[in-house]
């Protein structure tokens, strides 16, 4: 029993990396904004969004492990593969708005903690430092830093909820549906990005699973294939080692539980601290408003707890989304250029890679300096992610039915859960388009 638990802890990683990357602007900004404007009304939507995403996300895990390939490679080889790859490339270009918003919120948090340096200067420092870290760091180092960030997030949100002192019965009694266009769009953004992010991190997760497999998982797999077998990679041998897939699912589920816990904490803090004061959050005032209330009510020590969690949330999400966009975008561009999947390296220290990463970090910085509305940029990216969830769900459902070997065919219940999740996201997308029209 203890041996299995030890293996599970040692082999965990991509799911919690995803959680550290997902817990950021959506949870701190959108969750807190929803709590400030609507109290605990939409707390149910956050967990529903997580449940819907988990069903689709687990399908991405299964496809990656069973095939030994990233899902963008699997989909590129379909009949309409080039069109699918073009769609996701455009998607990542549009969600650069979210990267820009994350950069602004990270800089604002650091400025609040260290006001000697201006927000714009902090933005430049963060963009350059994170880009350099991603370029020089391999997956193992990236995972360790993200897990540390995840721990800081949990500590920060526990402190924030304790300080907010919410009434437990109100968390259930105040649940309701949106009654206005603005509330409906905010709800959609919450489910799209404020509840565990969207395709902008679910697609890169597939690559992180592959990178984890080439290191830690491979050396712990039992060799059950015949000596003459050509199955030499971890992910191919996983067909004979289903326990590794189970560990991956536990790891992913743990990431969703952590994400839901932290996201709920920020929404509860917003509802308990801001809603009674009838405060709404606009753009650059998110961090100053919350820190001022906490400091005025409890003292400087409360500010330290809050700002630590906020910086960890924004910084880890910016790093995770930038890394995911960088790795997945490179793979999409390479496949569209005709490079075979086996030839495309996920990471490498080359001049073209350095230039592409520099450009990728420079565009959000310039957009932030031009717009100066990080919360608006985050919400725009959240809407793009929510609208793209039905596309992701449809591709996952089709691939599981079509590509999975008969002996590993998912149960009808699980396939039905993915279908329901995809349908609900499609309904939400239609509603949002009608409301915007």
Automatic annotation (TrEMBL):
Which Pfam family would be a valid example here?
A: Nramp
Q: Which residues cross the membrane?
A: 86-107, 113-136, 145-164, 176-196, 253-275, 301-322, 354-371, 377-401, 413-434
Per UniProt, the keywords (alphabetical) are: Membrane, Transmembrane, Transmembrane helix
Give the membrane topology: Multi-pass membrane protein
Q: Where in the cell is it found?
A: Membrane
Q: Where is this protein primarily located?
A: membrane
Task: List the PANTHER family.
Answer: METAL ION TRANSPORT PROTEIN, SOLUTE CARRIER PROTEIN FAMILY 11 MEMBER
Q: Under which name does UniProt file this protein? A: Nramp family divalent metal transporter
């Amino acid at each position: 029993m203890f041996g299995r638990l030890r293996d599970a802890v040692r082999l965990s990683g991509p799911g919690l990396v995803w959680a550290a990357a997902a817990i950021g602007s959506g949870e701190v900004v959108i969750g807190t904004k929803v709590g400030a404007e609507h109290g605990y009304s939409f707390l149910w939507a956050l967990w529903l969004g997580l449940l819907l995403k988990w069903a689709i996300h687990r399908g991405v895990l299964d496809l990656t492990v069973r095939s030994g390939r990233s899902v963008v490679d699997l989909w590129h080889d379909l009949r309409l593969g080039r069109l699918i790859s073009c769609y996701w490339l455009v998607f990542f270009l549009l969600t650069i708005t979210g990267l820009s918003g994350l950069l602004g919120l990270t800089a604002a948090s650091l400025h609040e903690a260290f006001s000697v340096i201006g927000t714009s200067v902090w933005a430049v420092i963060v963009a350059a430092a994170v880009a350099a870290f991603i370029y020089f760091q391999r997956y193992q180092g990236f995972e360790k830093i993200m897990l540390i960030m995840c721990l800081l997030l949990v500590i920060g949100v526990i402190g924030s909820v304790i300080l907010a002192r919410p009434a437990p019965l109100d968390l259930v009694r105040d649940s309701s549906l949106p009654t206005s266009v603005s509330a409906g769009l905010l709800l959609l953004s919450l489910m799209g990005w404020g509840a565990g992010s969207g395709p902008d991190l679910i697609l890169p997760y597939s690559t992180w699973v592959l990178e984890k497999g080439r290191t830690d998982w491979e050396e712990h797999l039992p060799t059950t294939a015949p000596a003459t077998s050509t199955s030499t990679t971890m992910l191919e041998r996983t067909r004979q080692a289903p326990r590794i897939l189970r560990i991956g699912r536990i790891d992913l589920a743990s990431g969703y539980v952590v994400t839901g816990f932290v996201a709920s904490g920020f929404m509860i803090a917003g509802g308990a601290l801001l809603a009674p004061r009838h405060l709404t959050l606009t753009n650059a005032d998110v961090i100053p408003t919350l820190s001022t209330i906490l400091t005025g009510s409890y003292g400087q020590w409360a500010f330290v707890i809050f700002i630590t969690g906020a910086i960890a949330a924004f910084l880890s999400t910016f790093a995770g989304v930038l890394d995911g966009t960088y790795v997945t975008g490179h793979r999409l561009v390479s496949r569209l250029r005709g490079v075979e999947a086996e030839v495309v390296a996920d990471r490498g220290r080359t001049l073209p890679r350095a230039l592409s990463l520099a450009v990728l970090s420079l565009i959000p910085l310039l957009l932030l300096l031009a717009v100066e509305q990080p919360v608006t940029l985050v919400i725009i990216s959240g809407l793009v992610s929510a609208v793209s969830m039905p596309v992701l769900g449809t591709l996952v459902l089709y691939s599981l039915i079509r590509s999975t070997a008969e002996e590993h065919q998912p149960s009808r219940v699980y396939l039905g859960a993915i279908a329901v999740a995809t349908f609900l996201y499609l309904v939400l997308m239609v509603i949002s388009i009608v409301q915007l029209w």
